[in-house]
TrEMBL record:
This is Formamidopyrimidine-DNA glycosylase. GO terms for biological process: base-excision repair. It catalyses: Hydrolysis of DNA containing ring-opened 7-methylguanine residues, releasing 2,6-diamino-4-hydroxy-5-(N-methyl)formamidopyrimidine. GO terms for molecular function: 8-oxo-7,8-dihydroguanine DNA N-glycosylase activity; damaged DNA binding; DNA-(apurinic or apyrimidinic site) endonuclease activity; lyase activity; zinc ion binding. It comes from Planotetraspora thailandica. It comes from the Bacteria. It holds the Pfam family Fapy_DNA_glyco. Residues 2-93 form the Formamidopyrimidine-DNA glycosylase catalytic domain. Keywords: DNA damage, DNA repair, DNA-binding, Glycosidase, Hydrolase, Lyase, Metal-binding, Multifunctional enzyme, Zinc, Zinc-finger. Belongs to the FPG family. Residues 243-277 form the FPG-type domain. Its cofactor is Zn(2+).
Length: 292
C-alpha cells in the first residue's frame, strides 16, 4: 500500500510532468472507483493542471480549482505514460486498469498521461472530482500531517495522552496522524525501539520525544530516497529501504537478532525482539486462538 513517502514522491513526480498540461479526457474503466458525480469527470476536459498536492495518503491533482483526487488503497498504483496518443480505447473489464487520464501533447507531439491501476480482487481504489478537497470524507477527517512544522513533540504528546490504544494501531489511524500505514509504523517503532503493543498513554515524556523523532526522521528519509525517482521505481525503492517490515526471518541490521512477525488487526507486523521488546517474542494472538 502506498503511504505518505510514496504519495509525496508521486505528487512531486506529477508536478514536474503534468502541471501546465490540459486534461484531454478522463476514462473511467472501473466504475466502482468513482465516488462522486458532481462535478462530473467530463468537467475536467480542457482544464489545465495547475498543481499537485498530498493530503495524508490522498493524491490531489488540482485542475484550476477542480480537484481530481485519488486514494490508491492497498493494491493501487499510478503509472505514468509518456505517450498515450496511440493507446487503445479503454473498455470495462477484469484487468488492473481503473482510470486513465489523458493530457495535452508536448512540443514533440507526444500526448502524455497517467493510469491508475489496482491489483487483487479487493477493489478499494477511490477517485473523487470535487471543488474542495475537504469534500472528500477521508480528507476532512485526517489527523495532523507528521511532516508539517506544526507537528511538534507537544502535539504528539497531546495525541497520546489518555489513549489506551496500542501504539501500533494509533500510528496507523488516519484520523490521529495522517499518512502512516502498516509498513512505516513498523519502521518508526523499530527506530524508536518501542514495542508495537505498548499502550500510548504509558509513554514517558522522553519516550514521546523519541517517538516523535523516529516518526519525522523515518518519513523524511523515505521521502528523500524516493525523490526524483520515476513512478515505476517507487515500489522497489520502498521495499529496499525497509529495515523490519516485510523482512520476517532476516537479521536485524542494528543488532543481528531475527526479525519476527505477529498478526495485527487485518494484517501482520514485523519487529525486532532485541531492539523493541527486551528480547521477548510477542505472542501471536490470532494464532493462539486457532490453536485453542
Amino acid at each position: 500500500m502506498p503511504e505518505l513517502p510514496e504519495v509525496e514522491a508521486l505528487a512531486e513526480f506529477l508536478r514536474e510532468r503534468a502541471v501546465g498540461h490540459a486534461v484531454l479526457g478522463v476514462d473511467v474503466v472501473a466504475f466502482q472507483a468513482l465516488k462522486t458525480v458532481d462535478p462530473p469527470v467530463s468537467a475536467l476536459g480542457g482544464v489545465e493542471v495547475t498543481g499537485v498536492a498530498r493530503h495524508g495518503k490522498f493524491l490531489d491533482v488540482d485542475c484550476d480549482g477542480l480537484h481530481f483526487i485519488t486514494h490508491l488503497a492497498r493494491g493501487g498504483w499510478l503509472r505514468w505514460r509518456d505517450d498515450l496518443s496511440g493507446a487503445k480505447p479503454v473498455r470495462p473489464g477484469k484487468g488492473p486498469l481503473a482510470v486513465r487520464v489523458r493530457l495535452s501533447p508536448d512540443e514533440d507531439g507526444r500526448a502524455p498521461g497517467f493510469e491508475l491501476t489496482e491489483a487483487g480482487t479487493q477493489k478499494r481504489l477511490a477517485v473523487y472530482v470535487v471543488r474542495d478537497p475537504a469534500e472528500v470524507p477521508g480528507i476532512a477527517g485526517l489527523g495532523p500531517d507528521p511532516l508539517a512544522e506544526s507537528f511538534t513533540p507537544e502535539v504528539l504528546a497531546g495525541i497520546l495522552g489518555g489513549s489506551r490504544t496500542q501504539i501500533k494501531g494509533l500510528l496507523r489511524d488516519q484520523k490521529v496522524i495522517a499518512g502512516i500505514g502498516n509498513a512505516y509504523s513498523d519502521e518508526v517503532l523499530h527506530v524508536a525501539k518501542m514495542s508495537p503493543f505498548k499502550i500510548a498513554a504509558t509513554l514517558t515524556a522522553e519516550q514521546v520525544a523519541g517517538l516523535h523523532e523516529a516518526i519525522v526522521t523515518t518519513l523524511r528519509d523515505a521521502v528523500g530516497r524516493a525523490r526524483g525517482l520515476a513512478a515505476k521505481d517507487l515500489k522497489a525503492e520502498k521495499k529496499s529501504g525497509l529495515r523490519v517490515h516485510g523482512r520476517t526471518g532476516e537479521k536485524c541490521d542494528v543488532c543481528g537478532d531475527t526479525i519476527r512477525e505477529v498478526s495485527f488487526a487485518d494484517s501482520s507486523l514485523q519487529y525486532c525482539p532485541t531492539c523493541q521488546t527486551g528480547g521477548k517474542p510477542l505472542a501471536d494472538r490470532r494464532l493462539s486462538k486457532l490453536l485453542k
